[in-house]
Design brief:
Elements: H1 2-6, H2 19-31, E1 36-40, H3 43-54, E2 59-64, H4 68-71, H5 76-81, E3 84-88, H6 97-103, E4 113-120, H7 133-146, E5 149-154, H8 157-164, H9 168-172, E6 177-181, E7 192-196, H10 198-210, H11 219-231, H12 236-250, E8 256-259, E9 266-271, H13 277-286, E10 292-293, E11 298-302, H14 309-321
Parallel strand pairs: 2-3, 2-4, 4-5, 5-6
Antiparallel strand pairs: 1-7, 6-7, 8-9, 9-11, 10-11
């Protein structure tokens, strides 16, 4: 990846002159059967731009109550787009067509207009749970019938696809726009992509600029992203399998109360009563293991390509002997 970055041809992307960014955007658009793509610094930016191009002030967005676009993007849907949100209590971050239909607003002056549905795949707060295409199709059909736009927050989408063996082309056919992240399991240092129609991506470029996302010689970063898409997708299965392996190991440990279903590379577990996640995370950090508190008594492990087999061996040994 570093070799690809050092050898990248670059130009000024604000003027549309960076050949490496052109290659990345064309490759990712073609991957999903879409017309165009836009390289951005972060997944928050790609999601926020998607919301902006698909809605106008006084519209309403429908999503799960644990969605990243709702919980972890600083209320950007309101700040950037002036819209409201209808939240659904899904199952591990997943919502259904019938649940969506229940919250679609009638066309009254005193209600915001239902316009956009956002699905997250995999679902971060849901412990890496995922939708299959068969689960998405009824939602797609409802959106078609009710004239709703469907956006995919696919930050960890490829972790899903290595489990389901479904195609990116089939995913692309079901969504108006797709956001994918290059800097998580795929291993690039920076960047996400917004993928969609040529018309939408042309508008998206203007919003990227106003949000401060216009970059100059960013082809060095694009080269890393292109390398990731070409070389690092299949190996994501290793990360998923490691999460399942560690879940099996900790399931009987005395400080673990419960474990969320492990589907991809995220492992979320709840500590027994009286134990604080922040203290547990600090204890692991002192032992050289990084993790995240995910609530007062929940901890999140995320597995990725920078974790070696030796690190996994050390992790297992540490967890089995840990007293907390």
């Amino acid at each position: 990846m570093l070799d690809a970055m050092f050898s990248a041809q670059v130009g000024d992307d604000v003027f549309g002159e960076d050949p490496s960014i052109h290659k990345l955007e064309a490759y990712s658009a073609d991957l999903f059967g879409k017309e165009a793509a836009l390289f951005c610094p972060s997944g928050t930016m790609t999601n926020q731009i998607a919301i902006k191009i698909h809605t106008e002030a006084l519209d309403d967005m429908i999503c799960d109550h644990n969605s990243h676009v709702y919980r972890y993007e600083t209320g950007g849907y309101g700040f950037n787009s002036g819209i409201s949100v209808s939240l659904i209590q899904g199952s591990h971050g997943k919502i259904t067509a019938s649940q969506i239909e229940e919250v679609i607003h009638e066309d009254y002056d005193w209600l915001p207009k239902s316009k956009l549905v956002v699905l997250e795949n995999s679902c971060n707060k849901g412990g890496g749970s995922y939708y299959t295409l068969d689960e998405i199709r009824p939602i797609y059909q409802l959106c078609q019938e009710r004239k709703l736009i469907l956006h995919l927050d696919g930050a960890r989408l490829f972790n899903v696809l290595v489990e389901t063996n479904e195609s990116t082309q089939d995913v692309g056919a079901l969504f108006d726009s797709i956001s994918i992240c290059l800097s998580k399991g795929l291993g690039a240092p920076v960047g996400s992509l917004l993928i969609g129609s040529a018309r939408d991506i042309k508008r998206a470029r203007r919003f990227r600029k106003v949000l401060g996302g216009g970059m100059r010689q960013a082809g060095y970063l694009a080269a890393a992203g292109l390398y990731a898409l070409r070389n690092n997708i299949d190996r994501l299965k290793i990360d998923n399998d490691r999460a399942k392996e560690i879940a099996g190991i900790i399931s009987d440990l005395p400080w673990v109360k419960s474990i969320s279903p492990v589907k991809t590379n995220i492992l979320i577990f709840q500590l027994h009563e009286g134990r604080k996640a922040s203290e547990f995370v600090n204890k692991l950090k002192a032992l050289g293991i990084n993790s995240s508190p995910f609530g007062p008594d929940k901890v999140r492990f995320v597995f990725h390509l920078d974790i070696s087999n030796d690190m996994i061996t050390d992790l297992i040994k540490t967890l089995k002997t840990l007293r907390f």
